[in-house]
């Protein structure tokens, strides 16, 4: 009776300590949105916005 209880506790503990997913906290990353923009991508929008300000 003691052996199955210890075994089940050990399996649950191992499941919580060693998760199977390496990138568990990357679930909210959107691969379609860029995080770093190059100057060639920013320059046309910046010049257009400056033209409408004046």
Describe this structure as you would to a colleague:
Keywords: Signal. It comes from Hymenobacter qilianensis. This is RagB/SusD family nutrient uptake outer membrane protein. The chain has 54 residues and is mainly α. Helix content is 57%, strand content 0%. The longest helix has 16 residues. The mean pLDDT is 78.
Topology of this structure?
Layout: H1 2-17, H2 39-53
Keywords: Signal
Organism: Hymenobacter qilianensis
Signal peptide: 1-25
Approximately how much beta-strand content do the residues carry? under 5%
Sum up the overall morphology in one term: rod-shaped
Structural class: mainly alpha
Helix content: 55-70%
Number of H- or I-type helical stretches: 2
Indicate the low-confidence ranges by residue numbers. none
Largest sheet: none
Report the average pLDDT across residues.
Answer: 78
Our Rg estimate from Cα atoms comes to 26 Å
SSE sequence, one letter per element:
HH
The N- to C-terminal Cα distance equals 83 Å
List how many beta strands DSSP finds.
Answer: 0
Keywords: Signal
Protein name: RagB/SusD family nutrient uptake outer membrane protein
């Amino acid at each position: 009776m003691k052996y199955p209880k210890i075994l089940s506790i050990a399996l649950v503990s191992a499941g919580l300590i060693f998760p199977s997913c390496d990138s568990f906290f990357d679930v909210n990353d959107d691969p379609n949105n860029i995080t770093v923009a190059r100057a060639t991508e920013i320059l046309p929008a910046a010049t257009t916005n400056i033209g409408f300000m004046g």
